Structures are given as C-alpha cells and as structure tokens.
Amino acid sequence: MLPLDAAAPAWPARKPRLLLVDDQPVHLQVLYRTLSAEHQLFMATGGEQALRVAHEQLPDLILLDVVMPGLDGFAVLRALRAERDTADIPVIFVTAHSGEDIETRCLEAGAVDFIPKPINPSVVRARVHTHLTLKFQSDLLRTLAFVDGLTGVANRRQFDERLNIEWARAQRHASALSLILVDVDHFKAYNDHYGHQAGDDALRRVAACLREQVRRGTDLVARYGGEEFACLLPDTGLEDAQRLAVQLLEAVRAMAIPHRHGGSGGVLTVSLGVATRAGPARPGWQPALLLGLADAQLYEAKHRGRARMCAAALGDDGDDSA
Ligand code: GH3
Ligand code: MG
C-alpha cells in the first residue's frame, strides 16, 4: 500500500474524497474494501444518483462504471463536464469490457484513466494515488495563479477575468454592475513609521475586513495593486454600492489600527471610489470605462481630504460623496 506521507506537498491535510459509482453492489464493496482506509468514500449505484452526489459532495476523484442501466458512464461524464462545479473533477472509468477500443473511447471521452474489472486492488490504489496527486497539484497551481499571496483575497488576474465576465453577464441580463476601489490613506507614511512588516499586517487586516463586509456569493474582493483593493458587485445599483462603500469606510476605521502620522483621527483609514453601470452598456462602452470612473471617483475622494467615498454612474455627469 502506498503510504500517504509519500504524497506531494500539494496534498491537503484531510482525507481525499472519492465517489465510487457502480450499479452492482458487490463491485462497490470490493472498491470500498480497497480504498476505505485512506479515503473518504461516497457511493452511488446509478448515473443520476452519481451526478447528484457529485454536485453535493464535490469529490476529488470519481471511479465510474461504464455500463449501467439509465445514464451510462459516458453520459455521466458528459453531464459532469457540462457543469462548472464538476467540470474539473477527474474521472477514472472502471469496466469489465476490456480491449483497445473501449479503452480509447473512455480516454477520448475525457476520462483520465481506465481500470479493467476484475480490479487488482494494488493497481487501483496506485492509480488513484497518482490521479489524486495530479488533481491536488493542479488545484494548488490554480490557487497560486488566482489568489494574492499576502492577503488571501483574489489577485489582479482573477479580478480582470471576473470583471470581463460580469460585464458581459450584466449586459445579457440587463442588470446593474458596480465597482468599488478602496485605497489605504497615507500608507507610505504608515510603512515609513511602523515598518514594512506592520504595513503587511495592516493590508492583511484591511483585506479581511473587506471580505467580512462584502458577503454575497457573487461579489468579489480583490487586491488590485499595492495598497489598493477592488470590490466587484454584480446585480448592484449605485445606491446599494454607495451604502456598502460607507459601510467599508466605517468598518476599516472601526478596526482602529493606530496611524499617528497622517491618518485621520489617529487611525488607519481608506478612501473609496464607486462606479456603477446602471443598465445596458451603450455602444463603445468597455469594462475599462467602469474602472476608469471608479478610479476618478477615488481620486476625487483623496482630493477632498481622504477617509471618504465618492460615487458616480456611467453616463451620468453628476456624482455623490460621503
Ligand atoms: P494616499 O493617501 O494618497 O493613497 O497616499 P499613500 O501614501 O497611501 O500612497 P502612495 O502611493 O504614495 O504610497 C503607497 C504605499 O504603499 C507605498 C508602498 O510602499 C506601500 N505598499 C504597496 N504595496 C505594499 C505591500 O505589499 N506591503 C507594504 N507593507 N506596503 C506596500
Ligand atoms: Mg494610498
């Protein structure tokens, strides 16, 4: 048996989660005996049930029987790939039908591997181990590619991607889209007086505070640049975005992080620029326009004395501030 300590550092501390799918309970029992010591197991005896459990449990890997009444393995795999939350779960086909044809068909359908029945327990364990390692490595790479290392919120790359996606979605649904840019006030002075380490801590606390306040599942908090954060708010109009911005302003102030060298009231504060696209984009409007408007409002908030927010909607000439 392969010891788990042979695993790559990408492995999580918890037991890997496997979904076993076979219409014959006796085959499930053999797989259960083979894998239960080192894995958390979920089981399904049909295609529909497999899909339901896959969506509910989001397993790390699925061992899938090919021939089943109702939805067969190929149909299940297609359905998994079609949904965002299950699209990347690796699938190993397990089938009594052997031969190059079926093996090729399984791999072409998008399975990562093929295991013939009757199963050889040590081969199953070894292959499961290999594909879990690959899965956890790719999870780790995805996390590193999209998360800011210092604060743990989304990074600029993820923000840019989501801004384009949400811009297009708002256009399709004729819904509002808002953006709040948040910039720490007098942060250079903070670093100069309290040290870079304390500066890093303050950024982490501000990021955590924003994440605490920006709660809807579709919202995104990202580190936009050095001491600047962005909150992307789908389905949110100007008034709601302004209300949230004031809430963020107050929440950061309420942390009462001492800043006696330029901070307002002796504590660390932020300035915020809010921009909203209230309805459908006019011809020529691009996501960069929303960013530009939020940036202009942030500049205005700084100009008016910091520790405040300014807001505007695309297409409006007026603005609002607090
Ligand atoms: P303003 O109120 O106009 O925003 O002034 P400011 O001093 O905050 O702005 P400025 O752009 O002059 O300085 C930003 C500072 O943020 C300078 C930079 O060293 C600091 N900074 C940027 N990224 C980091 C980081 O990751 N860690 C730390 N500790 N400081 C950072
Ligand atoms: Mg600043």
UniProtKB/TrEMBL annotation:
Gene3D superfamilies: 3.30.70.270, 3.40.50.2300
Domain of life the protein comes from: Bacteria
Residue ranges of domain GGDEF in the record: 175-314
Domain Response regulatory: 17-132
SMART domains to which the protein is assigned, alphabetical: GGDEF, REC
InterPro entries xref list: CheY-like_superfamily (IPR011006), Diguanylate_Cyclase (IPR050469), GGDEF_dom (IPR000160), Nucleotide_cyclase (IPR029787), Rev_trsase/Diguanyl_cyclase (IPR043128), Sig_transdc_resp-reg_receiver (IPR001789)
UniProt KW keywords: Phosphoprotein
Reaction(s) the record says it catalyses: 2 GTP = 3',3'-c-di-GMP + 2 diphosphate
BP-aspect Gene Ontology terms: cell adhesion involved in single-species biofilm formation; negative regulation of bacterial-type flagellum-dependent cell motility; phosphorelay signal transduction system
EC nos: 2.7.7.65
Gene Ontology cellular component list: plasma membrane
Single GO term (MF): diguanylate cyclase activity
One Pfam family here: Response_reg
Modification 4-aspartylphosphate occurs at: D65
Entry-linked PANTHER family: DIGUANYLATE CYCLASE DGCM-RELATED, REGULATORY COMPONENTS OF SENSORY TRANSDUCTION SYSTEM
NCBIfam families: GGDEF
Protein name per UniProt: diguanylate cyclase
Source organism of this protein record: Tepidimonas fonticaldi
Upper classification of the organism: Bacteria, Pseudomonadati, Pseudomonadota, Betaproteobacteria, Burkholderiales
